[in-house]
Amino acid sequence: MFYRWRLLSPFLWRFKIDNVPVPVAEILIGIVLGKGVLNIVQMTPTLNQLSSLGLMILLFLSGMEVDLSIFKRRTKVEKKEESFF
Q1: Which of 13, 34, 38, 70 is deepest in the core (most CB within 10 A)?
Q2: What's the pLDDT score for residue 9?
Q3: Is the pTM of this model over 0.85?
């Protein structure tokens, strides 16, 4: 992981980005090293499975961050109290 940050650090310094979450940095590095830009990393069946696993983990962790209470139905009384303020 240390090498990934060394690759990305000149870009972060150039655009004055100080605090980038690790998953975002990993996705950006994957785009740069993959067939989209530099074509350094070739797709193999093992890498394909690992990328699918990584996507599943990313979606799982993103789902764990969602606050489900915002989807809770509110009663008419709660709506009236909310509109009062």
Answers
A1: 34
A2: 62
A3: no
User: For residue 36, which of 44, 45, 28 has the smallest C-alpha distance?
Assistant: 28
Q: Show the low-confidence residues of the chain (pLDDT under 70).
A: 1-18, 74-85
| Residue 51: both structure tokens together | 């990328």
DSSP assignment string, the chain? -HHHHHHHHHHHHHTT-----HHHHHHHHHHHHSTTTT--SPP-HHHHHHHHHHHHHHHHHHHHT--GGGGSPPPHHHHHHHHH-
Burial 6-20 (b: 16+ CB within 10 A, else e): eebeeeeeeeeeeee
